[in-house]
């Protein structure tokens, strides 16, 4: 029975690995193909001209830097807002859990295009269109539900017992947060930060409308090539985007998971 179970887990793991590796392999093949016509299984001609064309694009490096800068800024702002908000909603007694979840998911339930176009009118009045601040604000609004849901569950699982005990022993709020709450919530904070980074980095419509074409990010360069059938350039940009996302997630994991607070044994 144990051997059957282990074989089943092995095949499931192998199947999951194939599902992850196969799209990446296709992206790589498209990015190095100069000619790939039906019904050929593999490219007929290989070349690195696509990467050269991508690197020669004037907006390539600004797009990479803008994508990383915006995603990191949105992550920081979102976590700063979500931490106290999630704590309040986790322990408050007035609203039911279902109502709280509906409130959190409301930005995701409403049509994104309606939110973005109405926000654009407001941002035009505030002169925030075409600015990094405007893009960071709209990204934060769209990313908050993801961080809130993860941190809300983390706070509920943590409970108030540790904080109340520390308060009874005379600890102040700042010490309680850094010595108790932060170490115990670190896995939830890390997960929410990584998810926010990924979601913010992949935003197209909010960046396009609020940025007004003045601030270019990787999705703004990637999607037009994909829509126009230029799969080589689209694949090369996708691989760069994936690399930037993985690097950002690794840095966040290192920064948040590497901050050691509390008592060491």
Verbal overview:
The chain is mainly alpha-helical. The protein folds into two domains: 2-47, no CATH class; 51-257, MetI-like (MetI-like fold, Orthogonal Bundle). The chain has helices spanning 2-31, 49-56, 60-91, 97-109, 112-125, 132-158, 161-168, 173-201, 205-211, 218-227, 231-257, and strands spanning 33-35, 45-46. The chain has a two-stranded antiparallel sheet with strand order 1-2. The longest helix is centred in the first third of the chain and has 32 residues, at 60-91. Residues 259-265 have low confidence and may be disordered.
What order do the helices and strands come in, and which of them pair?
Layout: H1 2-31, E1 33-35, E2 45-46, H2 49-56, H3 60-91, H4 97-109, H5 112-125, H6 132-158, H7 161-168, H8 173-201, H9 205-211, H10 218-227, H11 231-257
Antiparallel strand pairs: 1-2
Helix pairs in contact: 1-11, 2-11, 3-6, 3-8, 3-11, 4-6, 5-9, 6-8, 6-9, 7-8, 8-11, 10-11
